[in-house]
C-alpha cells in the first residue's frame, strides 16, 4: 500500500526575475550551505552504517543502539485490554487499548496538557503530574472499579539504557527537556513510587520508545513494516536486529543468538563528533545555545524543534549584514525558538506568486514589512531547510536498510514533521531514490516506502505490554540475566 497519495505539485520555486543581485547572491550562498547532494548523501550513509555497527559493539559509539527487549513482532492475534501512557513533548496522553485479536483494536484516550514549565521543573513535579493524569483517567473511565492492578506500557521517548523491558536509565534529556535528578536514574521506580503515593493501581509492564512502539504497531496492521521512525519534535528510528549481531550483549543474556531484538537506535546522536554532517554556522549556534551542547548533532539538523530556529537565525544574520528588513525593528525575531516549524510550513504553502500570505504573516507576528524579493528569499530558505531535513532523514533510513541488507520494506513513520511539513514525504522518497539509484522506477513503486504509521505510543505500547506478559507467562526472558540486572541496578542506586 502506498500512502504517499497523489503526487503533490513540486515545491514552486517561483520566478526570481525581480530579485536584486545582492539578494540573489545571498540565496545562492544559502543554496550552497543547505543543499545535500547525492554524493554527500552517500558519504553520510556509508559513515552512518559504520556508526550503527559501532553502537552495537562492546566499545560503543555515539549512537546508543539500545536493545529494547522487544523480541517478537505481533502475530496479529494478541488480545486483551492494556493501558498506555505517552509522555510527549507538549502533551501527556493516556490510552486504554483493546486488542481484538484480528489485527484490529479499539482505543479510548484522554490528552492532558503538559505545562511548558514542567520541561525544566523538578523531578517530583513531573512524576506526580503523570500519576495524577493516570488517576484522573482511571476515575473517569473506571469510576467504580476497585483496585485490580493494571498493566501499563509507558512510552518515554528519550534515550534510556535498558537491562530489561520494564526499566530504563535515562542517559540524557533531549528535545529541550532539562529536569534535574532524572538523568542517570531508572525512570520506572520513580513513576511507580508516585503511583504508590497516590494509590493508583498500575504496574509498569514495559518502558517503550516511540519508535519501537511505532514499528510494532505498524507491523501489527501491515506485516511488511520492518522499521519505525519518528520525525517530530525529535527524530529517531527503531528496527529489528538479531542477538548474534549485538556484541555488547555477549555474556549478559541467556538468549539464542538468532533471537530477534528491536533496537532503539537513538540516531539523533549520529555524528556528535562532527565528521560528516554538513553543519552550517547556524547549526553550530543552535548546538552551543542548547541545554545539551555537543549532543544530538543529527537531530538538531533535522527535527521539528530546530527547523524554525534555523530559519530565525539565518534571517537575523542577513538582517544584521544589511540584506533584509532594512530600517525595520526586528525585536520580535530576537526571542530564541519564537518560530516553530509550522511557520516554515506556512511560508512554503503560500499559494500566491507574490507571497502575500507571507507578508501578512510577518506583519501580524513580528510587525515586519517584507518586500517581495525578501519574501522570495524567505521562501527559498524554508524550502532549503525543509529539504535538507527530509534528505538527511532519508540517509538514516537508507543506512539501516543497507546495514541489514533490506532491499524492500515498509517503514512506519510518525511525527509532526513527517505528517505536516509540506513535501517532506516526497523529498524524503526522492532522496532514497537518489541513494539507491531508483532512476527508472516510478515513486509509487519504490521498494522502500516510508509511510504514515499506526499509533505507536498507544497501540504499539499496548501491544508491547501484551507481548511482554505473554513471554513472562511462558517463562521466557524479558531482559538480561537476573544476576546482571541486579548488579547493574545496584550500580545505578
Ligand atoms: C529522543 C528519542 C525519540 C525521538 C522522537 C529524541 O529526542 O531521544 O528517544 O524517539 O526524539 O521522539
Automatic annotation (TrEMBL):
GO terms for molecular function: ATP binding; D-glucose binding; fructokinase activity; glucokinase activity; mannokinase activity. Its EC number is 2.7.1.-. Keywords: Allosteric enzyme, ATP-binding, Glycolysis, Kinase, Nucleotide-binding, Transferase. SUPFAM superfamilies: Actin-like ATPase domain. Residues 226-467 form the Hexokinase C-terminal domain. PROSITE patterns: HEXOKINASE_2. Coiled coil: none annotated. It catalyses: a D-hexose + ATP = a D-hexose 6-phosphate + ADP + H(+); D-fructose + ATP = D-fructose 6-phosphate + ADP + H(+). GO terms for biological process: D-glucose import; fructose import across plasma membrane; fructose metabolic process; glucose metabolic process; glycolytic process; intracellular glucose homeostasis; mannose metabolic process. Pathway: Carbohydrate metabolism; hexose metabolism; Carbohydrate degradation; glycolysis; D-glyceraldehyde 3-phosphate and glycerone phosphate from D-glucose: step 1/4. Residues 27-220 form the Hexokinase N-terminal domain. Pfam families: Hexokinase_1, Hexokinase_2. GO terms for cellular component: cytosol; mitochondrion. InterPro entries: ATPase_NBD (IPR043129), Hexokinase (IPR001312), Hexokinase_C (IPR022673), Hexokinase_N (IPR022672). It is an enzyme of class 2 (transferase). It comes from the Eukaryota. Belongs to the hexokinase family. This is Phosphotransferase. The lineage of its organism: Eukaryota, Fungi, Dikarya, Ascomycota, Saccharomycotina.
